[in-house]
Amino acid sequence: MNNARSIWVTGAGNGLGLALVEGLLEQGHRVAASGRHGEALDALAARYGSQLLRLPWQLHEEHQAAQASQQICHAWCALDGLIINAGTSDYLADDVADSELFEAIVTDNQLAGEHCLAKALPLLAKGDSPQVMAVFNRYSALQLHAPTQAPAGWNNMPQWMREQRQALKAQGVELTVVGPQSLKTPVTPAQAIPEAWTPQNAAEELLRRWPQREPELVLEVLDLNGLWPLSHK
């Protein structure tokens, strides 16, 4: 593939993240995958060989995000794309209480997103038409604090990501934020109706839209556990 790109996908062990990895590999791209170890990723590694780079996956820990970016640097020297699957439950502790589950999904994904973006940015700055896509679900897009106020970077991860847009653009990096429609700050006047997305057709649609480099995409999902399995227990 002459236009093969180097793309890092997080939350890649199952669900939507895994489907994105598989779709990118099928298109001939080089993929760095941060996801829990499992048979599905092992099978892709056996099938695609060096086209798939396996990376540390506990990215809410800064040192693991740093190790992942170092591996990418050693393998490819640059990065053309980063897909932050910010709905994953990969980072949940095994003993997290059910009452703390949603807050843990939000906070762990926020840490992972911040670490990955910071560590990937020097590599993206050297990439070819680099871009970032951050994908949120109804859980990870929650506004944890001051719910009566408008979303802001300190209390809402999608909004924090949007606030990085100008700095990214200054380095030539385009940003697409994907997530459920916000009632407070809708990104489209059209009504967004939840659909019965599967990991495969959601990944196919996101990868179809990826080259268009749109600032915002709405993804409303009926079965969140289908795209983002709760795998902490």
TrEMBL record:
GO terms for molecular function: oxidoreductase activity. Keywords: Oxidoreductase. The keyword Oxidoreductase applies. InterPro entries: NAD(P)-bd_dom_sf, SDR_fam. Signal peptide: none annotated. It holds the Pfam family adh_short. It comes from the Bacteria. The keyword Oxidoreductase applies. Belongs to the short-chain dehydrogenases/reductases (SDR) family. This is SDR family oxidoreductase.
